[in-house]
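Researcher: Please translate sequence to structure tokens.
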Amino acid sequence: MSAFWFRYGVSSLLTAGLLTGVVAPLPQLAPQLAIAQNQDEQTNIRVYDQASPAVVAIIAGNSSGSGSIITPDGLVLTNAHVVQEAAGRSVQVRLPNGDEYTADILGYDPAGQDLAALQIRNARNLPTIQIASPASVRVGQRAFAIGSPFGLETTFTVGIISRIDPRDGTIQTDAAINPGNSGGPLLNSEGQMVGVNTAIFTVGREGGNIGIGFAIPITDVQPFLTAIDQGRGADTAQAGSRLPGAQPPQPVELNGAPIRGALGPDSNMLPGDNSYFNAYSFEGRAGQTVSLDLTSDEFDAYLILIDSNGNSIAQDDDGGAGTDARIVTQLPTNDTYIVLANSFRGGESGRYQLTLRSQPGQSAGQTQRGMILNEQGALRQGDPMLPEDGSLYHEYEFEGRAGQSVTINLESSEFDTYLFLFDNEGTLIDANDDISPGNTNSRLSLQLPYTGSYLVIVNSYDNTGRGRYRLTVEEN
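Model: Translation complete:
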């Protein structure tokens, strides 16, 4: 996360300078490294220059995302979830050159994929993105994503195709994809579209990865475009989250009977560490506080809560008794939420019980005073780390109001804590290391500057920090 570089940038530059001054082999390797770097840079520049003029930013009411122009007269491919909340049947699209157009929603995928097609009004001779042959997509090839993460239009990221799910063809990539990339293209080294970026899966845990991104493959895109061309597009979106190779989540009710299940070969598998998981979905309201408990005597339980777009809301390892997992959190929006009953390590299996509860006395839209966020977790080996010092961190999000007075506490008896608060554009609002001399817990007390979402980063002071913590956000 580049926003953290303010803390470590100077030391990293000093380190780089020392290394280049004392390591003898570096001058000998420099020509070969320079050649390889130049080749990579040239490919990056060529793909960006070729494809970026045809990647649009989409504004659909309170929702935004990205899309690809695929015909000169303005046919745009994007995700259904980007435009499905638009008022009426039209949205605004903006090209990288600043030109803005109105586009009409032609239809959604009748097969239920998270796809939508738009037609830009009065368009002609627009730049386009070429679609790759499905047979050309291979694990290990380079992958490039262009989109508008957090509203930063025509952002370019690079990675590889990490996995192609054998069941549904979903493309997994480590090219950085964030909210706002949805609907944008995943490209190959020829600047051709190999998939439509649609979801992220961000979990911090041993053996797992952070920032895993998923794209709908061209094998699914082509039948959709044929349906649109033949006038068979659906009038309403049927798409939900495209989980990584997962069977559809089982709908459940809050405050229902405990769910008894088992993890094993018949379960889904989480990419990154090949751990088993079963998925459940429930309807939640903005501001609603829920408690989720996963207990097992046969494996180390791990819980993950995500929204309908695959974005992580909360996750926990040992927040319950022993190795049981527990999440208590306030839901940010009205949405269909997905709970993953998971194990801490790959290969673990066994029986479990999952309980989902809604705390009483809350109604939709009601403003709650008191506890806003109450999370328990643990920083462990394998969690995401800051690149400059290797310290571990977890992310949490909450909704706040302009002028609302809050106190954020991060407590741990096992490591020296560090606490950060960012706005929804990734700008640092405040940070704290120690509450007072001799007290290694962290605290922020402030009035929130705007109404919307905020990001809290739970961090350790240095790369030795490991252990359990409790994070709370309370209204004063």
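Researcher: Any highlights?
Model: The longest strand covers residues 155-164.
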